[in-house]
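Structure first, sequence second, as always.
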C-alpha cells in the first residue's frame, strides 16, 4: 500500500513545483514589463506639469484656511479646565463661542491665538437657549477677525471646513482644521428641557469633536457660516461619526446686539402653535388670548404662509424660523383666511420668564470661579424622542483635562486680574452688567449731541396742528403736570406714581406721558430717570406702509422703569430718539410714539434738535399725528399758560375712575 502511494505523492509534488515555477516566471515577466514601461514613460510624465488651476486652487485654499485659523481661538478656564473653541468677529476682541463652553470656564477665561500668545477674556452676554455666548478678549485693538456670512445662501453639497481645539490638541495655540461638506440645512435639534435648542442649524460631515464646540464653520471664502456645537457620537467613546451641527450665522447676527448688552437674553415664542392638516397646509392650532399675536388678529385655523420674511412650508420650518429670533422683536407673519392674504406685525414674547432664565443660567460656582458641573439631563428633562437622539451631544468640556495635559507655559500664564475685575460686574439677570453700563453710556453720549437740555427751563410748551387738518394743538409740560389742547378740547393730568391707567385709555393725553418721559430723560439722564438698562438693537418699523423685517432699521434701545410703567427709547446712530414705547399692564398694547422727523429749534442763545412730527398709535391703530410748528423750552407760548389751567377742577366722574396714585385728569371739553 505504501509503495503504491509514493509515486502518486511524487507526481503531485512535481505538478505543484511546476505550477509555482510558471506563476513565478509570469510574475517576473510582469514586473520586468512594468519597469520597462516606467522607464519609457518616465520622461514623458516628468515633462507634464500639474494643472495650474489645481495648484492655484490649493494655494488659495491654504491661504483661506491660514486666515481663518488666525481668527480662531482656543478657550481654557483659569485653572486649566474646560476646553473649547471660539472665533473673533471684531478687531477690538469680541468673540463668539458656545454657552456650554463659557459656562464651564466661568466669567474669566484665557484664550490662545495661533500667534502663540494667550489673552485674558471675560464673559459679555449669554444666550443659554441657543447655546451661544459673547466674550471679550483684552490686550490689543487689532485682533484678526472672521466675517459672518449669509447662512441663507448655504446649500447642501458645498465645501466647508471647521477650525478649533478638538481634544485640546491646540495647546500650542495652533487650531486644527478639518475639511468637509454641508450635509444638510434647516435642521432642528430638540433642546434638553428648554435650553440648548438648535434651530435652523447647519449639518456637516467635517470632523467636529469634543473641544471643537464654539469654534467656527467656514465656507471656502473664509466666512463664518455657523458656530459648531452639537454633534453625534458613537455610543462608546467620544468620536464624531460624521454628523455635526452648527448654529447658523444669521441666527448669530440676530443675537449679537442683545448679547452685547451683557444680559441673559432669551429666545422668542409666538404665543401660538401650528400643525399640518391633511392637505399640507400649516394652520394655527392653538393661540393664547393674552398674546400680542392674538391682539394683532391671529386666530385659530389661520393658514401661516410666512414668518419673519421666510416662507413656512412645514411645522418644522415654522419652529426653525421662530427658534432663531430674539424675545421682544416685532416680526411680520403672513396668513391666509377665507382666501384673503394679510400680513400681521407681531411682537414676540419670551420662552422664559426673567426668573426662570436666571434660575436656569445661574449655577453654583467653585472657589476658582468655574460653575459646578450640571448633571446630565434626566429623562424628565429630555424631549420625548430622547432615545432617538441619545448619541447627540453638545461636547463635553468638563472631560477635556483627562484628554490632554495642559502645557507648563499655559499654567504659568498670569492673568491681569486688576484689569479683568474692573470689567466684571455682577447683577441679577445679567451675564456681565459692566458691558450694559458701558453701552448705555455710549448711547446716552450720542443722545446728548442733540443739545444740552439741562439749560432748558423745566416748563416746555408746544404748538402745532393735526396732520392733514387745520385743527390747532397745544400742549404744555412741567415736572408735576401737563395739559393738551386739541381744538376746543382741553385735557390735563398730574404726574403721579401710576400711569398705567392712562395708557389703558388709548387717548390723546397719552402723548403727555410720553413727552414727559422724554423731557425727564433729556434733562436728567438715564441714571436719574429710573432703572435704565441697554437692551441692544431691535427692528423699528418707522414707516407704517413697510412690514418687511429686512427693510427695518435696527435701533439701540434703552429701557427705563418709570412709575408703574416701562418706557423704551429707541435711538438711531445719530442719537435721535425715533420711537418711545410705553408699557402699562401686562397683556395690553403699549402706546407707541413715533418721531417721524426732527428739526433744529432755536430758543435764545441755544439750539436744540427735537422732534417736529409725532405719531401716536397702539399696535397698527393710529390715534393722532401732530406737526409741531413751534416750541418754547423756557416759557409757555400764546395763551396756553399752565397758571391759567385749572388742573384741580377734574370732573367728578373722571376723578372717581382714577386711583389715588394715578395722574389726575382735567377734561375741559367734549370727549367725543
Amino acid at each position: 500500500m505504501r509503495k503504491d502511494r509514493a509515486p502518486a505523492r511524487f507526481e503531485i509534488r512535481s505538478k505543484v513545483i511546476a505550477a509555482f515555477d510558471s506563476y513565478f516566471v509570469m510574475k517576473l515577466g510582469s514586473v520586468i514589463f512594468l519597469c520597462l514601461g516606467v522607464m519609457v514613460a518616465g520622461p514623458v510624465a516628468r515633462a507634464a506639469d500639474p494643472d495650474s488651476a489645481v495648484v492655484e486652487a490649493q494655494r488659495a485654499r491654504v491661504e483661506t484656511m491660514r486666515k481663518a485659523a488666525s481668527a480662531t481661538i482656543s478657550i481654557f478656564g483659569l485653572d486649566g479646565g474646560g476646553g473649547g473653541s471660539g472665533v473673533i468677529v471684531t478687531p477690538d476682541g469680541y468673540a463668539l463661542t458656545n454657552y456650554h463652553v463659557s459656562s464651564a470656564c466661568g466669567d474669566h477665561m484665557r484664550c490662545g491665538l495661533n500667534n502663540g500668545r494667550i489673552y485674558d477674556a471675560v464673559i459679555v452676554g449669554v444666550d443659554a437657549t441657543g447655546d451661544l455666548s459673547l466674550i471679550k478678549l483684552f490686550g490689543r485693538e487689532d485682533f484678526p477677525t472672521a466675517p459672518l456670512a449669509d447662512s441663507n445662501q448655504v446649500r447642501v453639497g458645498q465645501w466647508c471646513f471647521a477650525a478649533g481645539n478638538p481634544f485640546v490638541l491646540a495647546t500650542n495655540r495652533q487650531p486644527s482644521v478639518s475639511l468637509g461638506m454641508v450635509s444638510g440645512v434647516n435642521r432642528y435639534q430638540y433642546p434638553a428641557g428648554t435650553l440648548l435648542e438648535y434651530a435652523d442649524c447647519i449639518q456637516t460631515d467635517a470632523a467636529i469633536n469634543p473641544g471643537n464646540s464654539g469654534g467656527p464653520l467656514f465656507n471656502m471664502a473664509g466666512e463664518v457660516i455657523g458656530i459648531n456645537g452639537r454633534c453625534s457620537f458613537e455610543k462608546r467613546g467620544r468620536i464624531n461619526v460624521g454628523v455635526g451641527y452648527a448654529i447658523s450665522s444669521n441666527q448669530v447676527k440676530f443675537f449679537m446686539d442683545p448679547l452685547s448688552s451683557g444680559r441673559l437674553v432669551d429666545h422668542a415664542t409666538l404665543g401660538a402653535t401650528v400643525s399640518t392638516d391633511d392637505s399640507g397646509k400649516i394652520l394655527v392650532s392653538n393661540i393664547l388670548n393674552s398674546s400680542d399675536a392674538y391682539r394683532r388678529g391671529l386666530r385659530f385655523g389661520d393658514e401661516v404662509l410666512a414668518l419673519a420674511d421666510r416662507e413656512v412650508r412645514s411645522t418644522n420650518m415654522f419652529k426653525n424660523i421662530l427658534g432663531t429670533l430674539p424675545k421682544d422683536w416685532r416680526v411680520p407673519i403672513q396668513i391666509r383666511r377665507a382666501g384673503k392674504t394679510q400680513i400681521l406685525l407681531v411682537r414676540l414674547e419670551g420662552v422664559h420668564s426673567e426668573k426662570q432664565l436666571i434660575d436656569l443660567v445661574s449655577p453654583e460656582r467653585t472657589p476658582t470661579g468655574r460653575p459646578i458641573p450640571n448633571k446630565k439631563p434626566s429623562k424628565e428633562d429630555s424631549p420625548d424622542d430622547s432615545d432617538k437622539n441619545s448619541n447627540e451631544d453638545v461636547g463635553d468640556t468638563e472631560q477635556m483635562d483627562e484628554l490632554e495635559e495642559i502645557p507648563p507655559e499655559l499654567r504659568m500664564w498670569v492673568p491681569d486680574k486688576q484689569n479683568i475685575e474692573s470689567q466684571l460686574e455682577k447683577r441679577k439677570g445679567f451675564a456681565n452688567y459692566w458691558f450694559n453700563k458701558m453701552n448705555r453710556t455710549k448711547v446716552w453720549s450720542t443722545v446728548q449731541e442733540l443739545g444740552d437740555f439741562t439749560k432748558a427751563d423745566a416748563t416746555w410748551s408746544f404748538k402745532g396742528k393735526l396732520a392733514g387738518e387745520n385743527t390747532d394743538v397745544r400742549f404744555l409740560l412741567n415736572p408735576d403736570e401737563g395739559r393738551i389742547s386739541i381744538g376746543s378740547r382741553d385735557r390735563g393730568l398730574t404726574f403721579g406714581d401710576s400711569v398705567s391707567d392712562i395708557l389703558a385709555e388709548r387717548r390723546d393725553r397719552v402723548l403727555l406721558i410720553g413727552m414727559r418721559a422724554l423731557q425727564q430723560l433729556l434733562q436728567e439722564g438715564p441714571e436719574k430717570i429710573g432703572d435704565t438698562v441697554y437692551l441692544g438693537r431691535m427692528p423699528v418699523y418707522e414707516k407704517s406702509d413697510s412690514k418687511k423685517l429686512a427693510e427695518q432699521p435696527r435701533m439701540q434701545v434703552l429701557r427705563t422703569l418709570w412709575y408703574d410703567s416701562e418706557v423704551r427709547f429707541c435711538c438711531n446712530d445719530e442719537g435721535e430718539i425715533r420711537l418711545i414705547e410705553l408699557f402699562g399692564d401686562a397683556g395690553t398694547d403699549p402706546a407707541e410714539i413715533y418721531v417721524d422727523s426732527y428739526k433744529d429749534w432755536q430758543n435764545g442763545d441755544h439750539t436744540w434738535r427735537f422732534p417736529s412730527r409725532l405719531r401716536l398709535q397702539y399696535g397698527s391703530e393710529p390715534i393722532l399725528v401732530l406737526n409741531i410748528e413751534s416750541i418754547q423750552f423756557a416759557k409757555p407760548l400764546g395763551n396756553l399758560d399752565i397758571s391759567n389751567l385749572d388742573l384741580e377742577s377734574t370732573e367728578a366722574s373722571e376723578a372717581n375712575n382714577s386711583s389715588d396714585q394715578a395722574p389726575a385728569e382735567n377734561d375741559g371739553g367734549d370727549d367725543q
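Margin note: The chain has 15 helices and 33 strands.
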